[in-house]
Design a protein that fits this description.
Radius of gyration: 25 Å
Number of domains: 2
CATH class of the largest domain: Alpha Beta
CATH superfamily of the largest domain: P-loop containing nucleotide triphosphate hydrolases
Order of helices and strands: EEEHEEEHHHHEHEHEEHHEEEEEEEEEE
Strand order of the largest sheet: 6-7-8-3-9-10
Number of strands: 20
Shape: elongated
Structural class: alpha+beta
Largest sheet: 6 strands, mixed
CATH architecture of the largest domain: 3-Layer(aba) Sandwich
Distance between the termini: 40 Å
Number of helices: 9
Length: 363
Amino acid sequence: MGLQIRGIEKIYPDFRLELDFQVRQGELLILLGPSGCGKTTTLRLIAGFIDPDTGSLAMDGHRIDTLAAHRRRIGIVFQDYALFPHLNVRDNIGFGLRMQHWSPGDSRRRIQELLHLVSLEGYAKRKVTRLSGGEQQRIALARALAPQPRLLLLDEPLSALDAKLRKNLRIEIRRIQRELGVTTLYVTHDQEEALVLGDRIAVMREGHIEQIDTPERIYNRPANLFVGTFLGQANLLRGRLVRRLGSPDGEMASVDTSIGSLQARWPVPGPAGAAPAIGREVTLFFRPEHCSVDRQGSGKTRSSNRISARVVRKEYLGSHQLVEVEAQGEYLTLDLAQQKPLSGDGTVTFSVDPSNICLFPGR
C-alpha cells in the first residue's frame, strides 16, 4: 500500500502547505520544485519532526501520525549527511541498530550486508572524517537502511557533490532502491535527477502539488505552464483560439499567432476547470526537440505548423545542436539532437507536429 498522505495541512504566518497524495509500495517518488515550495517541510512532517495542523499519515494502511518519530520506522538521508564525526563507519551504520537493541551478532551481519550493498567493503573501521563526500553519502544511506525501514526519505542527498559524482551516485541509489524494494520519497530541485531517478514525479509550487505522474508524462504532457517551464526547455507562443477541428489523430485546436495559424492538441480540462473557450487568449507550448527541420531534397511535406524563421544563433554541443531562430519577432529554440546539424546562417523552415503542442489558457 505504501505511504498515504490525506488532507495534510501545515499553516505558518507566511506559508501554507496542503498535501494529498500517495507513495506507492516499492516506488521511488520524486518531490521536485523550487526552493521554498515546501519539499523539506513535507519530509519533516512525514518523519514526525513537526506535527500537521490537520490530516493523517498512514503507512501500509496503519496510521503513523500518532506515533513518535523514532517509532515510525522511517530511514532518513540528509543533505549534509549528518554522520557522527567521532564514530567510525561501522558505528555510524550500527547506531540505529543499537537504538533498536539488535544483538551484537545480528548487528555485525547487517553492517557487513550494507557495506557490500554500498560497495564499501573493508571500510568498517575507517573514520568518517577521512572519507570523500561520495563515500560519506553512501555511509549515510547505509545507516538509514540499517534498521530495515518501511519508508526511506532523502532530502537533496546529492546536492553537495560535484556533477560527475552526482551522476555516479544517483545510479547507485537507484540500484540499491530497486534491489531492496523500499518505498522511497526523494526531494530534489535538479530536473535531470528527477527524470532519471523517479518512477513518478510530483512537481510542487507554493505548498501544493501541481502535477504527479510518470517522468514521460510530466515532461511531454505537463498539466500547466508552471510544470512545463520548470522541467526542461520550452518554446512559448501567445495566440487566440479560433476553432476546434476534427482529425484522424483526435480533436485539434486552430490558433492564430503572430507567426501564422498553428494547430495543437485540443486541451484536456485540468484541475482548474474546463478547456478555454473559442476566442480566448491561449499559450502554445512545445519542446525544442519537437521541432523538425525541413531540408531541401528531403521530400517531406507538412500540411500544418510549417514555420520559416531567421537563424539568430547556433550552439554545437557534440551530441546535439541548439539553434535560436526569430520569426515575426518571436524567438524560438530548435534542438537538433536527432537531426543533422545546420550549416550556414540565413533562414530555416521547420515544422512541429500538432500532437506535440500543448495548449494552455491565458498568457
